[in-house]
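re: that chain from earlier
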Amino acid sequence: MSRKKSAAKAKKPDTIDPYIEREKQKYQKPIPSREYILSHLTYQKKPLTLNQIANLLDLSSEEDLEALRRRLRAMERDGQLIRNRRKGYGIAAKMDLVRGRLIAHPDGFGFVVRDEGGEDIYLSGKQMRSLMHKDRVLVNIVGLDFKGRPEGTLVEVLERGNHQVVGQFFKKKGITFIEPDNPRLSQRIIVDADHVNGAKHGQIVVVEIDEHPTKYDPAVGRIVEIMGDKRDPGLEIDIAVRSHEIPHCWPDEVEQEAKQFKPTVPKKFYKDREDLRETPFVTIDGEDARDFDDAVYCEPRGRGWLLKVAIADVSAYVKPNSALDVEAKNRGNSVYFPEQVVPMLPEALSNGLCSLQPNVDRLSLVCEMAIDMYGRNRRTRFYEAVICSSARLTYNQVAKVLDGDSSDFPHPELLPNIDHLNQLYHLLQKRRQKRGAIDFETTETKIIFDKKRKIDKIVPVKRNDAHKLIEEMMLAANVATAEWLDKHEMPFLYRIHEPPTEEKLKDVRLFLGELGLRFPARGNPEVKHFAKLLEKIGDRPDLRLIQTVLLRSMKLAIYQTENKGHFGLAFDSYTHFTSPIRRYPDLMVHRAIKHCLQGRSVKKFLYSENEMLLLGEQCSMTERRAEEATREVVSWLKCEYMQNKVGEDYEGMITAVTPFGIFVELDDLFVEGLVHVTALGDDYFHYDPIGQQMRGEASGVCYRLSDKLKVKVVRVNLDEKKIDFELA
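^ sequence. v structure.
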């Protein structure tokens, strides 16, 4: 009944394409937009052939028909349409098909992360035979797996996620192949003997994939680069960059565009901008930072505050669909390795013209917020401006001032400004606590190298009040941006963080129950329940254990067009606005703001709904890609660091418990290794996932998350980036 009603209510398409003005901005000879094509297919209630669609859209010339054919194929690649055996194009969503990006597991199965959000779809090893990590796919949900998760079958590969693969070359019994360095690529890639190109057994190589795997045959490729031996110094970053296909070379057209920019801002850009060069903005960053996205200024206004957050106006230089824009979109974000950066934008922009350096004029997009005495944002105003940062301050300098020591602060004239920012920070902190945002205290580390680029030491990075101050100002600007764009009904990418799944919450409740801690027994707990629990357990010796369990119950934050709020930060609406030099979603948000400031129609906005959806998925993927690549490099470096420490004893703490053993992080060294279950003692040890512990059947000996242990380093495997311990 409901299906018939919804079908009967399908709206008849407008006579004129509502998005034609947007299409005219992109193409010299535009054809009807994707939205307009979809509206016709929806109204017709059935798949249509190319000619039938052309007749509906009144397209008859060969040129128009070819443009329509290309558009339909692009919509098919993007998973909007699917072509049936009668060559009719139908709407994929109406066929109960789901599109998304594949995340492969080293054990052979995988999960499809839906473009439109929602629970991931499980794919069995059988379905994965013709697939590789990061492929974009169209799947059909066929039921639930043994864990109650949606299970799918492959319908079509929309886009291959791997074109080049890094791995170790082997020649065994006449067969030449590579083992991919990325553990998520679990299939070998066959290399024909004619395409070995001089590679020797055991070397690290780059393979161009000529034939992707099928249901019956493995992938086939040819060696295009020999990187050398895995032990060569500095090779770990090159391997990670190529293994994860992180774009790292600038195309010629990008370099040509970048050369056009001078070190100073051209005077023509000053027109129609507010002149804030006399406003004492400051940047506050780490000692080794070079790309300064944001500058802040705060002054008292009545019983409240006026906060101005000036963000580098990257969109003034990087124009839509330019070579710079296409490459930035492809990269998605800058990738920060130890002592090396793969930037999203060329250095002329990222460290030069766009960076808010001190005492030079820079273009910025300013988010101005009038905040009352309770920390509530009462008014937001956006405008384009020219600023001149008064000082480049570091977190340590500002933290020292906040602690009451300003004796050697290099800019005494700015101390009142720092005081104003500090007062507002404490006000926003109270608001944060009242809101119930989660604040997990985790330890980040920094690798210190010697002159030969070997690890000298690994030190913890302490998050001081200056870090927190800037974080609160950026959060305020990001929330104000999301609310302002919502008010103007502009489409943009939200930064969403969904609540934990019911399955995760069930495990959390059972775990906390064993510790005698209460948690909402029914329904979906709010973020304030997590915050109150963390506050309640602040003095407990098992604080880190509980915090780790809570943290692991959380989902990853992603970019999406549908607003689902940010659970961890306790915001109803949230986006990323403050880092357009190093994040593409921020650049898209800047363009949305400027579109509104220019008073232009929403339907004329540069990005269609589908483009926005795909870009959200792309940017979420590049973010994960960067995290995985960085983690791999750090793991390799730590393994190299531990090679000459085999046989030594260390104190450590259990950071993870698994069915095959326990992971221990060494105190002071911050290096993690595995104590295999067989090395725990002469007993049968059983894994308890709820209690996060391993318990001996006969002895009753229990090894639990956050327990302290003394271990011995027994093995370091550089190839697999693994360190093995045994109990000392």
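The longest strand covers residues 377-388.
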